[in-house]
Structure formats: structure tokens, C-alpha cells
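hi! just following up on the protien thing from before. the input was this:
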Amino acid sequence: MARAEDVVVDEHLRALAARLRGPARLKSDLLTEARHGLLDAVEAYRESGMPPTEAQRRAVAEFGSPSQLLPSWQAELAVAALRGLSLRMLAVSGVGVAVGDLTWRGASWSDGPRPPAGYLLLSNSVDWIWMSTLLLSVAGLLVIAAGARVPRPGLAVAQRVVGIGLTGLVALGMLTGCALFTWSLTLWDAALSWPPMLVGVVVAGGAYFSLTRAARGWVLATARRPATLR
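and the predicted 3d structure came back as:
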């Protein structure tokens, strides 16, 4: 529990927290670490005979203002958000590439007339989107790993490009997936009662919900960065 004499420290940390966007766990870890460091500094000043309020103000002033701290913290949060998005996309796309066709195997309409060319093109497009997502997710993780070893401006740009690409693929995958499912229902009435199809729709819906949240988190974390770097 915060002590009454820690109010200056807590106000400073609340000001920082209000301007940070990114993964909640990492954000909490950054603020907790900062609080411990500030309180240690306050304690040291108090032991030297400084009044409590002045000790807090001195510790906060030496720790740094929001404009000094936020750029590096927000950059770290943006990278973590991209890592989370890449990992989720890698998992979902890997499953999609591996078992996507199982939705259709053994269907009662599989031996019927061949679907229209446009439908086949859309179906192939979904497969290519999954594959592109898989490859771009791997690229994102590699770029993040490279940036952790040797920070370079070019790698930061590459991370942003990967994030934009993954976010675009989430949106494109949702649109093409919904279009393919809707078109399937118009071609085959039995598709609505085919168990693998129904299971696939539920799983895909949950996956895209998770991916959308991750993509939104990355967008918010990245959009906050220019403001803090000014």
C-alpha cells in the first residue's frame, strides 16, 4: 500500500502511466521498477536529513520528466506489442496452413460440379494470405531479435513495416474469410450443417478476435511513439 508521504512519487508515476500504451504486463513491470528506484532514492535522501516532501521532489527530478522517459519506454512497449502480434499471427497462420483444407474434406458436395473460377480464386487467395502471414510473422520475430542485439534506425523502420503488413493481413484475412464462407453457403446449402465447417468458423472467429486485439494494441503503441519523440 502506498504511504501518504509517497504522494509525489505516485503522482509522477500516474502521469507516466497515463501516457504509455502497450502490453499491460510490461507496462506494469516498467512502472513497478521505476517506483522501486524512486523510493530507494527518496529513502537515501531522507536518511541524509532531507524533509520527506523535498526528498521526493529531488528523487523525481533526478529520475527524469515524462518527456525524457517516455520515448524509450514507449519504444520498448511498441516492440513488445509487435512481438506479441507476430507470435499470435505465427500460431494462427501455422494452424491455418496446416489444417485449412480439412474444413472441406469429405463434404457431401465435394464430388459435385466444380465451383466457379472466381470462387476458386478466392479460396486460393485465402491460402496465400495464410502463407504470407506465416512468413511475415517469422520476419517480424527475426527483425525484433536483430534490433535487440544491435539497435539501428533501419531496423526500427523494418519493425514498423512488418507491423503494418501484419495488421493489413489481419483485415484482409477477415474480409476474404467471411466472403469465402458466405459464398460457400450460396453454393452449397449443406455447408451450414457440415460439422467441420461450423467448427472452422468458430475457431477462425476466435482467432481473428485475438489477432484484432493484438493488432489494435500494436497500432496504439506505435501511434503513441511520434508524440513522445517530439
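Confidence is low (pLDDT under 50) at residues 226-230.
The longest helix spans residues 153-187.
cheers
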